[in-house]
Amino acid sequence: MTTSDTxxxxxxxxxxxxxxxxxxMSVIIGRALPDVRDGLKPVxxxxxxAMRELKxxxxxxxxxxxxxxxxxxxxxxxxxxxxxxxxxxxMAQDFSMRYTLVDGQGNFGSIDGxxxxxxxxTEVRMTRLAHEMLEDLDKETVDFSPNYDExxxxxxxxxxxxxxxxxxxxxxxxxxxxxxxxxxxLSEVVDATIALINQPELTCDxxxxxxxxxxxPTGGIIYGTAGIKEAxxxxxxxxxxxxxxxxxxxxxxxxxxxxxxxPYQVNKARLITKIAELVKDKHLEGISYVRDESxxxxxxxxxxxxxxxxxxxxxxxxxxxxxxxxxxxxxxLAVVRQRPxxxxxxxxxxNFVSHRKEVIIRRTQFDLKKAEERAHILEGLKIALENxxxxxxxxxxxxxxxxxxxxxxxxxxxxxxxxxxxxDMRLQRLTGLERDKIVEEYNTVLKDIAWFKEILxxxxxxxxxxxxxxxxxxxxxxxARRTEIVxxxxxxxxxxxxxxxxxxxxxxxxxxxxxxxxxxxxxxxxGGKGKTGMGTKDEDFVSHLFIASTHHYFLFFTNxxxxxxxxxxxxxxxxxxxxxxAIVNLLNFEEGEHMTTVLAVPAFEPGHYxxxxxxxxxxxxxxxxxxxxxxxxxxxxxxxxEGDELIAVRITDGTRNVFLGSAMGKSIRFHESDIRPSGxxxxxxxxxxxxxGDWIVGMEVVLxxxxxxxxxxxxxxxxxxxxxYPVHKRGGKGVITIKTNERNGKVVGILVVKDDEDIMMxxxxxxxxxxxxxxxxxxxxxxxxxxxxxxxxxxxxVSAAGLAEKEEEEETGTD
Length: 815
What we know:
There is one protein chain. The chain is α+β, with helices and mostly antiparallel strands. Among the domains are: 244-323, Gyrase A, domain 2, CATH 3.30.1360; 353-477, Topoisomerase, domain 3 (Orthogonal Bundle), CATH 1.10.268.10; 499-804, Neuraminidase (6 Propeller). The chain contains 17 helices and 41 strands. The strands form 12 sheets. It has a 4-stranded mixed β-sheet. A 4-stranded antiparallel β-sheet has the order 10-11-13-12, covered by helices on one side. Helix 3 packs across helix 4.
């Protein structure tokens, strides 16, 4: 179809498709993606080639960056000077490139994101390693193509002894695709390449024995190898990189987190600013300051911790909320035979080996050709020297050089090249010594020719040369790995970084919680004055005390029958007289909901049950595994009648007796088989029927031969054998466990104890006393008990807990 003026009509749709595809391929091949052979994008290749042409060598003086940029954009790369200078800058930054290719003098930016100085102020030259990428370029080892105006030739790829694509990596965004190849350690890449040459059948997993993973110039720690394996097998994968941190403690006990390495491509200044903002906005707690203490000796970010802060928890928060932990998405995309392809590790190495094989063959062919040409000339010179007098006479008798050349060819059967070489030979070459040198050179060239032909005839010799060159690279430029790889099949938790130790966890009535090492409280004799375990306001008092390991779980049961989940190490450690931290800042309680009881769980395992008792005497048994995965907003533990609340929770194995004690001094003992297991939403069954005004204060699961300790609010208590309490069916009225009167007051707690244990009691004024159980005699059930703690007027006991002493020797004192 044509118009009236015979001009062809072009479909807009077809033209758009064609033009866009041409543009896309131009970007992919000619700008954004690296070549799999030399690992360079066109702009990098042109920069190095221009520096070579300017003889900007490592052992020669620096040249102005502007001069290099001018040559590159004027001769080979018709784009903006900023793009070319940025390329030069990056190749000179030791925090961007694992092995720099440009040696820079001047300000080339910093890891803080500082801009480099203008190109008129900086100077550059190639590094020794860059020369290894350009070596043999003049031996017809690679193809050349015309530059943009066809006035010059430029290489389409560099010979590159260095596996640069793996060693320095690459990043680029093309049209519809992107590449993100991490840097690797040169020594490991060389080892993997040699291993693949020796055993071409090696798999990607087997190659990982030699090349375990990326090696970033900024160091850091790679957590887990799953992402590395996936990337090496498929060409795509995601790895996690963490900063390297160390907790330092000064003489005063103040802790500081020192960061010496950060993830690759993370801006240090922005990272510090982000941490400061999170601290200001209260998203990061426990940090008093953050400052950059980096100097010429290396990187150091100091993060000061507030007194009582848990360094492991703060580190975990830094990993979660900042770029102290960063993901790196690996995409092994490169140009292979003018086409973009996603490659596996094995394919990337194999392509490099194939390239080097071709380079060596072409180099050898070039050397052979030059050697044969030289041998041809030397043969002519040798003939001339053997017939020196005749040659001299022939030349003297010739009228001109042309006639002399023709007569030499006819007389001795020489070629034109040989005859010309004889005519060009200086007279000094006719001396005896020079004649010997020509013969020696001829013999050497013949040996070289034989060697070159041997190489071209043997593929194994070519591979041996590749390996020898790689080993020489490793010996000269190889270094130690900077990035640590932690082989992990699971997510690392804080528990992996926290030493296990027993803690005293105290909770006040207004909802403050804290933990302290159990060694903070010394054992005292019966009747001692106690030690303050938690500072409280006048209207507040300590209501709960627990002993648990830092690795245990805490299940927080609330007045509404819900349960929340927390690790003991997530509870902040505070000073002995400090109130601690509000529970509402740890758990997501609903409005009007408050914590009533807590359960320390060593681990969630099948075959165990959670036994619960309410204030109204209801009991319920539920499988422990039903509580192993609570949500942030908590889950329902049991259904409660109006006005009732949960007061005690224990873990059982299904074979225990249950013991309930009331405030009026009554108690009941029954076997837990009387309670059938039920789901989380059920209400449970009657455990003990109570008199009006009475309520349940405690529950224990007991065995025969144990002793029961009862404590009253006025500081009295007693120890009684559990065998004195008959086993009844659940739902009864119970028997007397301790007399409650004006002297004793009401019962505040019951607990099962052993002779080698200690008892810890807490008063409403924050006082804690620890006394050995053996100091209290075992007496009968229907008695008043003895004084356990010296009380001040108006003071009362609010809680008691048992403690298994772990030291061989107890401390004594009257603190």
